[in-house]
Write a structure and sequence with these properties.
Length: 222
């Protein structure tokens, strides 16, 4: 089943249903060779869903690391990942960045505009997620964090003027089908497939992404 995101012409976001968190986490490690990390999970207390971290005002309930030393927990072995989720089957699926990929983070509206331009430019995309925080994350080769500011300046923009950031070493991305409390689940806009196993460099995507973020900012300033 597919869900069409309202207001977009090119994106059809498949709903992630029928696959357990354990199976999904193992597949990421086995098929993509990604390091995978179990995060917090949702618990029901008096009919109300709360984050396992215990914070009543948690900003990302059920969708963040459970420990401060989370980076040391991540594993790329399918067997190790299976063991972790057998112990905590409801744990969210987190992917550390800066290892096999970095991510470029933009607003949802800019992300869909960029996708339309990329399609016209016939660019090859890596995986792309859309989260309930209305942010889109584009997977690119590691090293993007040190390149983005210079690339944006070269295109004539001030990095501070665009709502565009890169996450690399020491950060993580929340992976489908993890849920953010009652706000919904993270979904793939572009699924990981054999066709996008080789990730693009940020230099290949930065022009349409920066353009879209600039357009998005101008629209908000009106």
């Amino acid at each position: 089943m597919e869900e069409t995101i309202p207001g977009t012409e090119t994106a059809h976001v498949p709903l992630q249903r029928g696959t357990s968190l354990l199976e999904t986490a193992v597949r990421y490690a086995e098929e993509r060779h990604w390091d995978v990390l179990p995060g917090t999970w949702l618990e029901t207390d008096g009919g109300v869903q709360r984050c396992s971290c215990g914070e009543a005002a948690c900003g990302a309930p059920g969708a963040h690391p459970a420990r401060e030393d989370w980076a040391t927990q991540a594993a790329g072995s399918a067997a190790a990942v299976r063991r972790m989720w057998q112990q905590r089957p409801a744990a969210s699926v987190l992917l550390p960045t800066g290892r096999t990929f970095d991510v470029i983070d933009v607003p949802e509206t800019a992300g869909f505009l960029a996708l339309a331009r990329m399609e016209r430019m016939e660019l090859t995309l890596g995986p792309v997620t859309l989260a309930p925080d209305r942010r889109m994350r584009f997977f690119v080769l590691p090293g993007a964090t040190v390149k983005v500011s210079g690339l944006v300046r070269r295109l004539g923009w001030s990095p501070a003027a665009l709502d565009l950031t890169a996450s690399g070493e020491g950060a993580y991305v929340v992976a489908p089908p993890t849920r953010y409390g009652t706000r919904g689940a993270v979904q793939w806009v572009c699924r990981p497939t054999a066709a996008n196993r080789w990730l693009p460099d940020v230099e290949e995507l930065i022009s349409p992404l920066a353009y879209a973020c600039g357009r998005d900012r101008c629209g908000r300033d009106r």
